[in-house]
Amino acid sequence: MKIVIFAGGVGTRLWPLSRKNTPKQFEKIIGEKSTLQLAVDRLKPDFKPQDIYVSTGKKYEALVRNHLPQIPAENFILEPEMRDVGPAVGVAMGIIGKKHPDSPVGIVWSDHFVKKERRFREVLEFAKRLVNQQPGSIVFIGQRARFANQNLGWLEFGDEVSQMRGTKIFKFKKLIYRPSLEDAEMFMESKKYAWNPGYFVTTPAFILEQYKQFAPKIFKGIMNIQQAVGTSRFEEVLGKTYPTFEKISFDNAILEKMDPKNVFVIAADLGWSDVGAWEALKEALEVNKNENVTKGKVLIEDSSDNLVFNYTDQLVVGIDLEKMLVINTDDVLLVCSKNSVPKIKKLVESLNGTEHEHLT
User: CA 14, 16, 52 angle in degrees (round to 5)?
Assistant: First the structure.
C-alpha cells in the first residue's frame, strides 16, 4: 500500500505562525516536530519511506526535503502552482499509477493531529483490505464526532455491510460540507454521521477512471503527465500541463459525482482533529474545555478557556482572560476572541498591497 501526504496549503487561519513562505505544516505547532513530520511518524512502522509520497508546491521543495530527508527524492510530487485539490489528487494518482495502478493508495493530510496512532494505522489496513477485496471502490475514513462541529465536512453513511475485527464498515450515502448548527446537532443524535477528515483509500486505476468520466479535461492532462513519468521530459511536461488545469476541489470534481455503490465508510475514533485553526488546536490539546492551553514562556492568572502560544523569549502574561487567543511571534502579536477566528483570514488578505504585506 502507498500513502500520499498532501502538504500544499497555506494555512491562513493559523496566522501569524503560518505564512505564505512557511505554512503551518512546516511549523512546530504541537511538540518539537512539524505537523508534516508528525504525519510521517504516525505511519511508522507499517509504512516504509519508499511507500510514502508527499504532494506539495514546488516553492516548498527545499522545506519539504529538509523536514523529510528519509523520503526518497522521487517520491516528492511538486506542483508547479496551486490549482486546488482536484488536480493535485489526480496527478498524484497518475504518477503512482504509472507503476502501481491497482495498488491501494491512502490519501492523508499534513496538518492534522491524530492521538490514537495505532488505531489510525489499523483502520488504514482495514480500508486497504476492503479495496483489495472489492476492486473499483473507495473507502472514506471518518472520525466519530465529538461535538456538533459546524466548521468541518461530515460523512453520512447507511447500513453496515461488514466488519473487520470488530470495526464496522458502512455503505456511503453523501458528503455534507459545513452544516448549520441545527443540522450538526441532528447529525450527532442520529449516529449515522461522522466528521470527514478527508482521508480515503482507493486505487489509482479507479480514481483515474472517475476523472475520465467526470473531469475529462483534467484527465487528458493527467495522462500526458503520466506518460512522461520516468523520462527526461517529466519536469517540462508537468510544468506546462499543470497550470492549465481548472482550479477545482476534489469533492466538486469527483466525489460528489461518483456512484455511491462504489463507496464505503469506516467511522472510528482516531483522536483526530483538524488543527488548521487556533480554536481547533485548543480543542485538540485540551483535557477539559475550560482549561488554558499554553506554549512557551506564559504566565496566566484568573483566566479560563484560553489558548496562549508564545514563540519568543519574551514573557507573556494574561490576567482575567476568558475564551481568548493570544499568539506571540517575533514580529506579530495576535489577540482576539476564540469566536473571531474566521476574521483572521480576512484580515490577512487585507494586508496584501499594504506596508504589512511582508507579514502574510
Answer: 50
Q: How far is CA 132 from CA 20, 262, 303, 337, in A?
A: 39, 13, 52, 48
Note the pLDDT of residue 135: 87
Q: What is the DSSP letter of 322?
A: B
226-245 pLDDT, tens digit per residue, is 999 999 999 999 999 999 99
Domain residue limits, the chain? 2-277, 286-359
In 3D space, the residue among 346, 314, 353 whose CA is nearest the CA of residue 332 turns out to be 314
Let me know the angle formed at the C-alpha of 74 by 122 and 229, rounded to the nearest 5 degrees.
110
Give, to the nearest 10 degrees, the angle between helix 204-214 and helix 216-228.
140
**Whole-number pLDDT of residue 326:** 97
* CATH T-level fold of 2-277: Spore Coat Polysaccharide Biosynthesis Protein SpsA; Chain A (3.90.550)
Residue 231: all three cell numbers together: 523520462
Ranges under pLDDT 50 in the chain: none
**What's the pTM?**
0.89
Candidates 202, 198, 129; CA nearest to 169 is 129
